Amino acid sequence: MTSSISTLDSGQGFTVIALEPHAQEVAEALAHFVQEVRNGRPAIEFSTSGSTGPPRKITFDSKKILLSAEASITASGLEAHSGALICPLPAHTVAARMMAVRAWILGRPLGVLKPALRPALENIPPGPIAQIALSPAQCQALLDSGFGHVLASMGSVLVGGGPTPPNLEALLLHFHISAFITYGMTETLGHVALRRSGQPHYHSLNPSIRFSAGEQGCIIIATPWTAGPLLTTDVGEVIDPFTVRWLGRADFVINSGGVKIHPEEVERLLAPFMPSDLAWFVGPAPDERFGSVPVLYVEGEVPSFDWSAIWVNALPEKLWRPRRVVALPRFHRSPEGKFLRGPTLRTVFEQP
């Protein structure tokens, strides 16, 4: 890998490389972040994404950042794979920042691509790649564009930042891609647990990370780098202190006549029956009788399907079946293609 944008003399050697012109600003920002960690800054600011409440600013000590990065390195077996780490994510995200720290700890170069729905993997020079971090939408776009063999050649692929659709997990298995689906958030300094494609349970990075159940079945996370147990808005099944099954977000729950419906679970069951080229999600809609009911929202035009047959085959619980299909002109997405459920629903409910 050549044409480094910034090199830090960390003792191990650390090079951040912009692999395309539009990635230079991201590369420089990540180099600066690693410099702050290297200098032992006691309070480095992060912006949360809202997983445990309204978005806000939080700070972490450099030592805590290193603890989290080292736990990920060990759990994902990153040391066993040679080569660079690749980051096509915005510089302000915890995923991009922790990727940079992992590269610095290992003394590996960090290749930076412009954050985009379909990262330009063709700009990566020949050579081994130890790890890449992608959102589910980015991963899907790359597989749709014929890059399955490229991802399969990498040591591991981290997929996170949002729910991973079952059809995407099936493709990861089909291409024999060594993928880890991540669980975590900014408040936990990124992922605290991993699971393999097709497996239902997340396993904590190490025994120092523990899970328990809080009110309404929400997951509580305790780590050495967070200030006490953290109550999330993630609803899940705690199998044991080190294993959890994620079900959905408490703040997205549809309360339909007193029955709590997790849209992410409904989406998981619907996914095998839905076309891969259709952007869709399940969300609430007001209802005079039940208060709220599930509705299928699609991007663009509503396809001509026998929707009733799909509901019956996919969803044994009648109350889980969407009452109707609603077309929206477009969904809100982040620069890297991550679907933003909250802003999209706010657009729906703010319409006159």
Short description:
The chain has helices spanning 24-38, 62-75, 94-106, 136-144, 148-152, 166-174, 263-270, 307-314, 341-350, and strands at residues 4-8, 14-18, 44-47, 57-60, 84-87, 110-112, 129-134, 156-159, 179-185, 190-196, 202-204, 210-213, 218-222, 230-240, 243-249, 254-256, 259-261, 280-287, 291-299, 325-328.
What share of residues is helical? 25-40%
Whole-angstrom Rg: 21 Å
Sequence stretches where pLDDT stays below 50 over 5 or more residues: 1-11
Class derived from helix and strand content: alpha/beta
Mean pLDDT: 89
Give the number of helices: 9
Tell me what the structure shows.
The protein has 352 residues and is of the alpha/beta class. It has 2 domains: 4-205, 3-Layer(aba) Sandwich (Rossmann fold); 253-350, 2-Layer Sandwich (GMP Synthetase, Chain A, domain 3), CATH 3.30.300.30. It is 26% helix and 30% strand. It has 9 helices and 20 strands. The protein has helices at 24-38, 62-75, 94-106, 136-144, 148-152, 166-174, 263-270, 307-314, 341-350; strands spanning 4-8, 14-18, 44-47, 57-60, 84-87, 110-112, 129-134, 156-159, 179-185, 190-196, 202-204, 210-213, 218-222, 230-240, 243-249, 254-256, 259-261, 280-287, 291-299, 325-328. It has a 13-stranded mixed sheet with strand order 1-2-6-5-7-8-9-10-11-15-14-13-12. It has a 3-stranded mixed sheet with strand order 18-19-20, with helices on both faces. A hairpin with a 4-residue loop joins strand 12 and strand 13. Helix 2 (62-75) crosses helix 3. The longest helix is centred in the N-terminal third of the chain and has 15 residues, at 24-38. It is globular. The N and C termini lie far apart (53 Å).
